[in-house]
Design a protein that fits this description.
This protein has two domains: 120 residues, Aspartate Aminotransferase, domain 1; 221 residues, Aspartate Aminotransferase, domain 2, CATH 3.40.640.10. It has 13 helices and 13 strands. The radius of gyration is 20 Å and the shape is globular.
Length: 358
């Protein structure tokens, strides 16, 4: 397991001698608007449900997701976050050689290590704005039986079009493509990019997270969609009661009001677009850091040779702001950092600190 996921507020607070609540966390990738207003009320009203077992297969959750996306419920699995799927899929699919598009989220690699499965990375380059070379990916996919693609990617914020993904999926029919769309609801082109509806591909698995967009990571909820054949294969490894009662209650509530979902997504996208533009504009003339184009609310930056990510993060941290040191992402050096945007005043404070530190 990677040491240094975002959100280690406790260590920074201990170092500074302050409380966790004093720390502003700009390292974790969560919706800056927070969860919908009704979520806390739903949790309070459903606390009594922890006295009984939840649905063993979370079928009501599955039906809600399927109904919202226009899918057959038999094409959907509800999971204890997308993480459960990531660690289960290599074993369920019987993967022997995995290709991972990087630099990216470490759990794809860690899932392979857990099951002693060979893997390699197809790394994108900073010189290309971390946009993947599809021909190179296609060539490397010939040697793999499973491919992990995070789209949009964490930590680079780059995105691959539906057309390019479908090209790869169609060309390599014997290779299973796992497309992690955890951050896609934040992207303006989400509806034109998502492969959730493409359950006709026999070699496609799509992961969808509820944790990021609805800012409920502690509830651990996510979905997998695929052909019925793949779903049946994966369900062999499914653990009953893996999604707790409160998580099921919240997700069932969300899908019982489908008319509120897309407006919430759009409100989030509009907010991110405005704040990202303001943040980048505030730093457009700053020297010592290169900020990469991002399709999400988090932004990857590369520091000059004179500044290490560890030193930079520590100096920002002294002002009680936690940002992500990206030196432990395979494919990135100790010059890379990531910022997850929040409210305007906090974003401005970070931008001013960046100028000050550099």
């Amino acid at each position: 397991m990677i040491i240094g996921h975002g959100g280690n507020k406790k260590d920074l607070a201990k170092t500074l001698g302050c409380t966790i609540n004093d720390i502003i966390d700009m390292s974790s990738n969560l919706n800056p608007l927070g969860p919908p207003e009704t979520i806390e009320k739903v949790i309070c009203e459903n606390l009594v449900k922890i006295k009984s077992l939840p649905e063993p297969d979370a079928v009501t959750m599955r039906k809600g997701f399927a109904r919202f996306h226009g899918l057959d419920v038999n094409n959907v699995i509800a999971g204890n976050g997308t993480t459960w799927f990531i660690y289960t899929l290599p074993m369920a699919l019987g993967s022997k050689k995995v290709l991972i598009l990087g630099p990216t989220y470490s759990d794809y690699k860690d899932a392979c290590l857990m099951h002693n499965i060979r893997f390699q990375h197809c790394h994108t380059k900073a010189s290309d704005e971390f946009d993947p070379d599809i021909d190179q990916m296609s060539q490397m996919a010939q040697e793999a039986d499973t491919v992990f693609i995070c789209n949009p990617n964490n930590p680079t914020g780059s995105i691959i079009s539906k057309e390019k993904l479908e090209y790869l999926i169609s060309k390599h029919e014997k290779t299973v493509f796992i497309i992690d769309e955890s951050y896609l609801p934040f992207a303006e082109q989400a509806n034109d990019t998502s492969l959730v509806l493409n359950t006709d591909y026999k070699n496609l698995i799509v992961l969808s997270s509820m944790s990021k967009i609805f800012r409920i990571p502690g509830l651990r909820t996510g979905f997998l969609s695929a052909t019925k054949g793949l779903v049946e294969k994966i369900m062999t490894y499914y653990q009953p009661w893996s999604i707790n009662a409160l998580a099921q209650a919240v997700i069932n509530h969300i899908f019982s009001h489908p008319d509120r979902i897309e407006p919430f997504y759009q409100k989030t996208r509009d907010y991110i677009k405005t704040e990202k533009h303001h943040f980048l504009n505030r730093l457009k003339s700053v020297q010592g850091i290169r900020l990469f184009r991002s399709n999400t609310y988090f932004i990857l930056g590369c520091l000059s040779d004179q500044t290490s990510s560890n030193k930079f993060c520590r100096r920002i941290g002294q002002h009680r702001i936690l940002i992500r040191d990206c030196s432990n992402f395979l494919g990135l050096s100790d010059q890379y950092v990531r910022f997850s945007l929040k409210e305007r005043d906090i974003n401005e404070r970070l931008a001013d600190l960046i100028k000050q530190v550099l």
